[in-house]
């Protein structure tokens, strides 16, 4: 088989935005190719219950993403397990290179590369990553049965992770830098009612400490945000849940970005600063960052691409 594939629409990313773009672009007979990236299904594959995706009172994140993938495939979208390592926007058709060695040429591109977990950037956090420090409770929570765990952050992810981790941990301490959570009220309510969770307000992670051989976490030092007082919390697991940053590295040098790397689109559309390149989902959205809004933008991107291609004919 040739190592170069041409498509009218190349969709990069397999979260709600990518798969929805796949459904719509397929139904527009554009025969799209969707490249899944390193995380097939996107961020929702790292969570358990999703309770706010319309049509599902409750659905497991990974199950929802399999349904979306099957939907896109059923409509005719070709789905490829590859990672795009570069995108040349100076040529027409656009040229994307895959980690597999394949080249993809496309008349239009829909960027749906979403967002990735942020880290605090501490040396000790880095040292114990994968050895007690994690950013994914559903992936790693199981390893901490009967142990004490800390979660850092105050958004939906932090609260959901803290709640989920009570399934395994003897105690979960949520450490937040303010005394107010960003998380939805329904999640806050569940957090406050959970007897296994203690919330430590006005504290920031200062250091993760542990043993070197074998490498493993024993606890953390946290600092009070106003008094500066240092406190020690014993823990075997540290879950960092301080938000997500857009995965815009493929195009950050060539497309206009704003609010810390989010791809700028013309308001009310998914058009980027380069005609023929569209962006959808968390990659463009510093404000809502929900599965349903990402799916909505995926739909818009496919419709925008269809109109763009019609003007090129
Ligand atoms: P993502 O889901 O981030 O997917 C990005 C995709 O791009 C991935 O498939 C990745 O592999 C791919 N990709 C990245 N780079 C490349 C590349 N170079 N080449 C090819 N592919 C690439 N939202 C809700 O509405 N309800 C919830 O209950 C909910 N729970 C959540 C729980 C957690 C733990 C997290 C982290 C988020 C949660 N969210 C929830 C937010 C929701 O997951 C996101 O808003 C949504 O997934 C964004 O969709 P997306 O398609 O923009 O990107
Ligand atoms: P988020 O909403 O941006 O929250 C990040 C949290 O981390 C905030 O509480 C923030 O504190 C804290 N934080 C950030 N930087 C920090 C630092 N350097 N040190 C200490 N604390 C820090 O991120 P998120 O919770 O990952 O959510 C991302 C998006 O996904 C949101 O739109 C969210 O609604 C969505 N999501 C939805 C669901 C759901 O619907 N159930 C579940 C998960 C995620 P401050 O509050 O002080 O800024």
Helix and strand layout, with pairings?
Blueprint: E1 4-12, H1 16-27, E2 33-35, E3 49-50, E4 59-60, H2 61-75, E5 78-80, E6 84-88, E7 94-98, E8 103-111, E9 115-117, H3 123-127, E10 133-134, H4 137-140, E11 148-152, H5 156-165, E12 171-175, H6 185-193, E13 197-200, E14 203-212, E15 215-224, E16 230-234, E17 237-240, E18 244-246, E19 257-258, E20 262-263, E21 277-279, H7 291-312
Parallel strand pairs: 1-2, 1-8, 2-5, 8-21, 10-17, 11-12, 11-17, 12-13
Antiparallel strand pairs: 3-4, 6-7, 7-8, 9-18, 14-15, 15-16, 19-20
The structure holds flavin-adenine dinucleotide (FAD) and NADP nicotinamide-adenine-dinucleotide phosphate.
Domain FAD/NAD(P)-binding: 8-298
GO biological process, one term: removal of superoxide radicals
GO molecular function, one term: thioredoxin-disulfide reductase (NADPH) activity
